Amino acid sequence: MNAPLTRFGLPQPTPDELEGRALYGDAFTPEEMARWFANEEAGYHALATTIYQSGADDPFESLHSDAFHFYRHLKGRTWPTCLAFGCADARDVEVLAPRVDQFIAIEPARAWWRETIGGKPARFMAPRSDGKIDLPDGSVDLVTVYSVLHHIPNVSTVVGELARVLRSGGQMLLREPAVSMGDFTQPRVGLTAHERGIPPRLLERMFAANGLTIVRRAPMRVGAFSKVLGKLGLNANSATAVRADAVLSRVLGFNMRYWRRNVRDRLGPATMAYILEKG
Prior knowledge:
Elements: H1 15-18, H2 30-40, H3 43-54, H4 63-69, E1 79-85, E2 100-106, E3 116-117, E4 120-125, E5 140-146, H5 155-165, E6 166-177, H6 200-209, E7 212-222, H7 223-231, H8 239-251, E8 269-278
Parallel strand pairs: 1-2, 1-5, 2-4, 5-6
Antiparallel strand pairs: 3-4, 6-8, 7-8
Helix pairs in contact: 5-6
């Protein structure tokens, strides 16, 4: 008898995947990955475009957050080539343009493809459903991965590929949600079909397995804090809010739970930011 499937036609998560001891999707067959990829391919583009057109505050805006968690720790660094993995419309990486000679962007939504990013040459490529990257070993100097891996089934394969194309001594800037993001077997308002967070202990095992050293590790985005700011009409992405959230995230880091089932569970950071170095 065949095992029951989710509403998306994919396998139900195992108990280990539900509890965050294993990552749902990472062990999918090629056929299951292709189904996931087809559902997810243009999901973020459609979601983000709707938000932009509505005139509402962009919840994906992260300039102050990235400046605080990444860029201030990399003063003076320059990079000949930056691989912007899943960069959407590239607004998150444009700030790097004065310090980068050229960009290579991997982005499924062709509506966002362009020839330059921040005035620097950019070559856009489509992702492969198997997670492989069509670039030579050690061919890029900087990799940016901003809230992308949680949209992908075979995360361990993609982390291995990102590490492979990064040169020895190169840096990777990575930010990913660390909580389940609700029941990822069901449709959710404001989210694409399959996105789910990645437990930090699993992600950090992938780093270690691929020769990536953690230079900086920072929890961020306490859900309850962002919600309170929103109710007060304040911008949770402002520089002041980002700094306050960083303090709260460190204090409440012990309460990072994969499944947040009540208010107490939300009193903890929901995202992890990393600066990584290869070799």
